[in-house]
Amino acid sequence: MFDNSVKAYTQACEVIPGGVDSPVRAFKSVGGTPPFIERGEGAYMYDVDGNKYLDFVQSWGPLIFGHCDKDIEEAVIKTVKNGLSFGAPTELETLLAEEIVEMYDYIDKVRFVSSGTEAVMSAIRLARGVTGKNDILKFEGCYHGHSDSLLVQAGSGLATFGTPSSPGVPADLTKHTLLCEYNNIENLKKCFEDSDDISCIIIEPIAGNMGLVPASPEFLKACRELCDANGALLIFDEVMTGFRASLTGASGLLETKADIITFGKVIGAGMPVGAFASSKKIMDHLSPDGTVYQAGTLSGNPVAMSAGLTSLRKLKANPSIYNELNEKALRLVNGLKEVANSNNIPLQINTRGSMFGFFFCENEPTNIKEVGKCDFERFAKFHHEMLKKGFYFACSQYEAGFISTVITNEDIDACIAAASEVMKEF
Ligand SMILES: *Cc1c(COP(=O)(O)O)cnc(C)c1O
Asked: From the record, what ranges are coiled-coil (predicted)?
């Protein structure tokens, strides 16, 4: 029943490395062949074998209104008819920037780019340009895109500076990246003792790339205080959580405020869009007003802007969406937990707005090391069996899951019923 996907995958592997354009899509951590998708409709996706899936991945976050939302579709088609790209300013960019600026009282200006990776990379350059400092501090388990200086892993012993986590990244390019344990205030303090050249802390305030692992309020407060005391800027990477965790992202759920926020995913509604935003004072350093260089041929692409604009306006017109999404997220994870409990399977669950996470382990993980102790074999089995039953979960325990507005309680109950059959066999 995956015959056409297997064929498509084999064919893809001939001409595309690993058959995919982003590694996670290859299903390496759960095994098997990834379904090749033909089309989406509302809460569902259909693969090239005609299998139907309830989609909890949502293109890894962007599709908060599900597939083929009529309003977004209409806006995009209308814009396409006027031309795909001009390399000149359009009013759509201003309109989308206004929507974002209006949401945060400490954001005055936004610059659009084409991906989350680009947004973070540019935000870090800006932070370095503004502070005149070189080092950056990131946390183990947080993902900020695939740019060189962020592909770091813990070095040997107690060194706080990271070493490259991928061949092709010279150690010279990661030697300015300090690596700290998430939710570990002592470790954080030590980093600031080890370097007086820290330009910024970059953090996912609600981490979604090691499963769903929120930072504690005290930890974020410590980040803020250490930045202030050491002349560094605090960057919240909200590429995933922006307009996902709440209408004002993770920031809206937290007391601590950042200096720079990066966006992606939901603000493009499925089109390639990223953005970084800050106060006027900081953004004025960016070219052409200032001296920190940043550019992009397709940045602020009108078609992508119209998708994002329609999506954000819909969200703002229906702020209660987030409560409804969170209720559904809770219905799902509580249901899964009940099923797991009745089968004596330890399961940890969490939600933030429309985001959810679950771990097959005894205690709730607070950092990547603890996530690593979860039962990955069990997760792989769960994933595979649920996929066969038509439920498309992220293919790794290191990923968060997402609820879209078109997923119904009936969908969720069907998923829990399927999980109940699957976990009985564990
Ligand atoms: C997805 C993601 C990125 C990278 O965005 P791309 O569009 O894949 O380049 C960066 N940071 C976070 C927190 C993400 O979730």
From this structure: none
For the chain, what is the radius of gyration of the CA atoms? 21
**Catalytic residue numbers?**
143, 237, 265
Q: Is the CB of 339 under 6 A from ligand 1?
A: no
Task: Give the pLDDT confidence score for residue 157 in this predicted structure.
Answer: 59
Tens of pLDDT, residue by residue over 395-415, are 999 999 999 999 999 999 999
- Whether pLDDT at 424 is above 80: yes
Collapse the DSSP code of 230 into the 3-class scheme (helix H, G, I; strand E, B; otherwise coil) and give the result.
Answer: helix
pLDDT in tens, 302-355: 999 999 999 999 999 999 999 999 999 999 999 999 999 999 999 999 999 999
- Fold annotation for 70-317: Aspartate Aminotransferase; domain 2 (3.40.640)
Phi, psi of 254 (to 5 degrees): -125, 155
Q: Is 122 in the pocket of ligand 1 (CB under 6 A)?
A: no
From the options 3.90.1150.10, 1.10.357.10, 3.40.50.2300, 1.10.10.400, give the CATH code of 3-56+320-423.
Answer: 3.90.1150.10
- With a 6 Å cutoff on the Cβ, whether 240 touches ligand 1 is yes
Q: Report yes or no: 383 and 393 within 8 Å, Cβ to Cβ.
A: yes
Domains 3-56+320-423 and 70-317 share a fold: no
| Ligand 1 in reach of 114 Cβ (< 6 A) | no
| Rounded Cα gap, residues 42 and 54, in angstroms | 9
Alpha carbon of 353 to ligand 1 centroid (Å): 18
Domain spans in the chain, listed from the N-terminal domain onward: 3-56+320-423, 70-317
Q: Can you state the angle between helices 70-80 and 302-317, rounded to 10 degrees?
A: 150
